[in-house]
Each structure stands twice: as C-alpha cells, then as structure tokens.
Design brief:
With 253 residues, the protein is an alpha+beta fold. Among the domains are: 66 residues; 82 residues, no CATH class. It contains 4 helices and 5 strands. A 5-stranded antiparallel sheet has the order 1-2-3-4-5, covered by helices on one side. Helix 1 crosses helix 2 and helix 2 runs antiparallel to helix 3. The chain is rod-shaped. InterPro entries: UCP028069. It comes from Alteromonas gracilis. This is Energy transducer TonB. Keywords: Coiled coil, Signal.
C-alpha cells in the first residue's frame, strides 16, 4: 500500500470512529429524554388519576348535596305548612281571648240572677234540708266575690248547686232535725218523698207531722198515718225493704 493510501485509510478510520462516538452519545441522550418523557407522562397520568378521583368524589358530594337540598326543600315546605296551621290556631285562640271579656260581661250577671233565683226557689220550696241549702247559696255568693276563682269555676259550681236541687226531687231521704210544734222545739226524723211529701216523726215514734207548703207550717197527723210514717223513715234508712205505704200527699190543683 502506498503512503498516500495509508494516510487516506487512516483519515477515513478516524472519521468512522468519530461518527460512531457521535451516534452513541446521541442515542444515549435520546434514551435519557425518553426516560424523562416517560417519567413526566407517569407523573401526568398520576395527576390525571388524582384529579379523576377528586372529580368523582366531588360528583358524589354534588349529588348528595342535590339530594339533601331537595329533601330540605320538601321538609321546609312541610314545616311551612305546619307553621301556617299553627298560626291559624293562634289566630283562632286570639279571637277567643279577645271575646272573653264580652263573654264575662254576659255570664257574670247571669250567674248572679241564677243564684238569686235559686235562693228564692229554696225559700218557696218544702224545707228539705233547708239550712244546708241556704248555706250553699251563701257559699256561692262568697265564691262570686273571690277574685282568685275563675269565672268558669264559678259557673261550674252554680250549675252544680242546681244539680243538687234536682236530686232533692228524685230521691227518698231521712235525716234528723228540729221542728217548731206550737212553740215547742221538737227533735224529729224527717222523711221526704222527693218534693211530693215532707214528714216528721218524733224520736219516740209517738207523733208525726206533715209539712203544709201553702200555710208554710207543720200539721200534726192523725194516728192513721203514724205506722206508715214509721215505716217510711225505716225504708229511707234502709232498715226495712221498700214497700207501699199510706202517706198524706197534697193533690195537684
């Protein structure tokens, strides 16, 4: 080989070695860049996954919020209807409260008239438990003057007194008391057959009287009524069974 050819071969070999070195560096750089790209892509994918998970959580929260909002709306509508109904009740109560004074103005005079009428009736009636009944009227008057007693309670007790008066006309009864017999006070057993008859029997069972409501006095009975009066008192006390007895009864005119 000539010297010139040897030099040319040497130069070409040098270029070939240089080209190989350059190609190796470039490939290594490409691998590095590719690795960086993969790493960046992995990070990006990780961020995407994270964002997706967050978006799914937000979606679930959004749906829950929408559901809660809808439920709250329904509940609020329900509460609003209750409040409206309560307000109607309050308005009704307020109207009743406003009318209480007017009611009192009408019912209080009525109760006083009822008490006066009750007292007058008792004084005109047969004197069955007279003192007890008159004391009940006085208690009603004291009740009307008591500011601590409500109007409703006053009215209740007035009606109760009327009911007690009704019972006097529907029952037989016997109790002890005194009568005035020609200026002499005599202790007796009273017997009343409702309001039909009021009789008195001496404790020794030797004398009997009947109340005359027209003359407002006691009249002594004959011996023909004595035994029947004794039986009537015993029947009222429950010592003998009820039976037919002969009693002096004032006929209605």
């Amino acid at each position: 080989m000539s010297k010139r050819t040897l030099i040319a071969s040497t130069v070409m070999g040098a270029f070939a070695l240089t080209g190989s070195a350059v190609s190796a560096d470039t490939l290594e750089d490409l691998h590095k860049e590719e690795a960086k790209i993969h790493a960046a892509a992995a990070k990006s994918q990780e961020k995407i996954n994270t964002l997706f998970e967050q978006s799914q959580e937000l979606l679930v929260e959004y749906r829950q919020t929408v559901d809660e909002t809808e439920n709250l709306k329904i509940y609020n509508d329900y509460i609003a209807s209750l409040v409206a109904d309560q307000q109607r009740g309050i308005d009704s109560l307020q109207r009743q409260i406003d009318s209480i004074e007017q009611t009192k103005q009408g019912i209080v005079p009525l109760m006083f008239r009822m008490i006066d009428s009750l007292e007058q009736f008792i004084k005109l009636d047969r004197p069955i438990r007279l003192e007890e009944r008159l004391q009940r009227v006085e208690r009603l008057r004291d009740l009307m003057a008591n500011s601590n007693v409500t109007v409703s309670e006053q009215f209740r007790q007035v009606l109760e007194a009327y009911l007690v008066e009704v019972e006097y006309g529907t029952k037989i009864n016997s109790y002890q008391g005194t009568i005035d017999d020609a200026g002499t006070e005599v202790t007796v057993d009273f017997f009343n057959l409702g309001r039909t008859a009021l009789l008195a029997l001496s404790l020794d069972q030797t004398h009997a009287w009947v109340w005359n409501n027209e003359s407002r006095s006691w009249e002594k009975l004959g011996d023909e009524y004595l035994s029947s009066t004794i039986d009537a008192v015993k029947m009222a006390n429950g010592t003998i069974p009820a039976a037919l007895v002969k009693l002096p009864i004032s006929a209605a005119e």
